[in-house]
Amino acid sequence: MHLYGSLKIPLAIDLFLISSDNDTDILPLYNAGLPTTLHRFFKLYSFIKNNRMGIKVIAFDADDTLWVNEPYFQETEKKFCELLEDFLPHHSVSQELFKTEIANLGLYGYGVKGFILSMIETALRVSNNTLNAVVIEKAIQYGKELLERPIEMLDGVEDVLKALSGKYRLVVATKGDLLDQERKLKKSGIGHYFHHTEIMSDKQEKDYQKLIKHLDIEPSQFLMIGNSIKSDVLPVLAVGGYGVHVPYHTTWAHEQVSHHIEHPNFRQLKQISEILPQLLP
Ligand SMILES: [Mg+2]
């Protein structure tokens, strides 16, 4: 029992990690059937060690990571479906709207303005161009209300920013409309914690590579925190950075993936504040 004492395990792991060329050397060991506890311990220790080895920039996704977003869209969508209930059941209108949004993503990008245009297009299609112009007026009004919603910060966000500020370069990396995201950041009152805000047209590997280059750092010095596995974690891991997932209770269908991640640079948290013990001495 004493062989696995609290001092000897970290020392052994430390020696092993020092002798490893990189994190990928550890993966076969993970897969070799280590006991679950030891397996988790390896992952955590590897993460902390690598963090100490040089993370410089911590990037935060904005919507549903820093502040509430998706529930507001869902409320708007519900009202929109009610507008069209003479033509189709709610669920079908919702499906039609989703189809329109996805088809338009390449043209309009992410954000409220594209969402408004997609609502109008969907309304015209499901009504076979027979709807009253008042419905279009309502859809535009709902969109404007969405743009004017107050900012509701998520639990623990400001404490995390305050604690990390000055110790790391903090960045916002978000999709959405430029003006809308800038406005939300200003209204949130947390803008002063960030060195840089990147409004990204998309969050794919090439977009992160561009951001990392712009920040003048190596991928291994970049850590991204966000609520979307698809946008905030997988592409970051793929380019050599660190990905931290903090799930939100609701996620847009387009961002949903069922993906089990086994990667030494990945961390799954329940709350954003859980990152602090891993990033601070
Ligand atoms: Mg998000």
What's a concise summary of this model?
The protein has 281 residues and is of the alpha/beta class.
Query: Topology as H/E string?
Result: HHHEHHHHHEHEHEHEEH
Number of strands: 6
> What is the number of domains?
3
Mean pLDDT: 85
- Helix/strand/pairing class, anyone? alpha/beta
Q: What gyration radius follows from the Cα positions, in whole Å?
A: 22 Å
CATH fold title of the largest domain: Rossmann fold
Q: In which order are the strands of the major sheet placed?
A: 3-2-1-4-5-6
Bound molecules: magnesium ion
CATH architecture classification name of the largest domain:
3-Layer(aba) Sandwich
Text of the CATH class of the largest domain: Alpha Beta
Poorly predicted spans: 1-31
User: What does the overall shape look like?
Assistant: elongated
Q: Report the helical percentage.
A: 40-55%
Count of discrete alpha- or pi-helical segments spanning 4 or more residues: 12
The span between the termini is: 29 Å
The percent range for strand residues is 5-15%
Query: Strand count, sense and closure of the main sheet?
Result: 6 strands, parallel
